[in-house]
Amino acid sequence: MTGFEMVVFDTDEGRIERLRSGIRLPFLSFAIGNGPMVAKAERLDAMWLTPMQAERYGASPPFPLHRAQLMPTPMKEIEKGLPPFAVVGVAISPDDPTDPSWQLSLVVKAMALVIRDTQNDETRPISRVGMLPEHLLLNKLRADEASTIIERAYHEVYPRP
After folding, report:
1. pTM as predicted
2. Domain span at residue 56?
3. How many structural domains is the chain composed of?
4. Using a CB cutoff of 8 Å and minimum separation of 24, what contacts does 69-72 make?
5. CA 20 to 30 Å from 83, out of 5, 54, 118, 146?
């Protein structure tokens, strides 16, 4: 398994620099800009969307619990500069923990699993996924804590060599 790269982006340069200095993982990078700008500059294959964000792509509830899904990006969004796919997730139940550490682990594992499952499909190879800091709960966790959780969850799906 080859893995994939997460590209966290924001238009706030100071925020990205703070995150970049606190999170150093070989499969996670940072970029400054908006979705279309970063999609092009970073050659993104997909963008991470929450289930609510994916509704504008035609997704509708109910969403699978604790899982991510791969969806094609509508042509009108591709024409605006977004990548050809969206990775959509993750629905949780009202009984699930509200702890951001648990939620971050779930998001990373769900993302990694759906990408791993698509990597054998040559028509949908996903190797670079863009996302906002909030998608990784980086607004709710310290950088060192988030880094540890992301690394552990990623390597549960893509073991170290």
Report:
1. 0.94
2. 5-157
3. 1
4. 69/114, 70/46, 70/114, 70/115, 70/118, 70/124, 70/126
5. 146
